[in-house]
């Protein structure tokens, strides 16, 4: 069976996972920097989701690296199903968190300066953008693996 | 080829589409009732997405009804692909709109009464809930059709 580029155990998948780790960490970093995020439910949700997606992507990046180095195949329907479902659930949570945070940032930017100083709001904005980009990579990973699933 | 329950042209699909129309219309109704939604970007986004999902679901409900009555099969990969992609895109937009609105409602409920009177905020809350339920049905439709796609 041909391996789909981007599915688990390929170099493209490893690159996608690395991208997810970097973007999620950046999102978490910019959100936590001001330590003011706990006043807003949406920001707390974003921090929680980013805290979930980082270890998940890290584990799968290690799995990809191991598969590439040892050149063994881990294309078993059980493992792939767990990866697809995990990726789908995490991508849904990431999208929800990113759009909630983006809408709150939009509201804060229009409101008074006392609610959110310009410097702090820009950080929140960058964090929401990073979360959106991380969602795109997560969906890509999920779709590539889903494409492979019926063939197993 | 066996038809998957919930895929296009079945009674379950017709029921899902009807549910989507009812929930999206209810969400649009509760959001537009107060006419104060245009002050918030997230609420405008929700209204736009609900305005897209209603005609889409209505068209597909008509297609389902026609297929059930005439007892013909419309299982062609081209049509199914358009339906799956349309459903996926609309469900992503619905989830983004619903979570943005929910986060804004949460923020408004904590803020001063002058920003959002209790009666108005409850309407927004109901609207966001309906949008979430509509998203669930939309994802279900999309997954049932996606399941059928590789078999064609």
Automatic annotation (TrEMBL), chains A, B:
Keywords: Cell membrane, Membrane, Transmembrane, Transmembrane helix
Natural source organism: Fraxinus pennsylvanica
GO cellular component, one term: plasma membrane
Protein's cellular compartments: Cell membrane
UniProt family annotation: Belongs to the Casparian strip membrane proteins (CASP) family.
Record note on quaternary structure: Homodimer and heterodimers.
InterPro entries, per database record: CASP_dom (IPR006702), CASPL-5 (IPR045009)
Transmembrane segments: 78-109, 130-149
Domain Casparian strip membrane protein: start-end pairs: 9-137
UniProt protein name: CASP-like protein
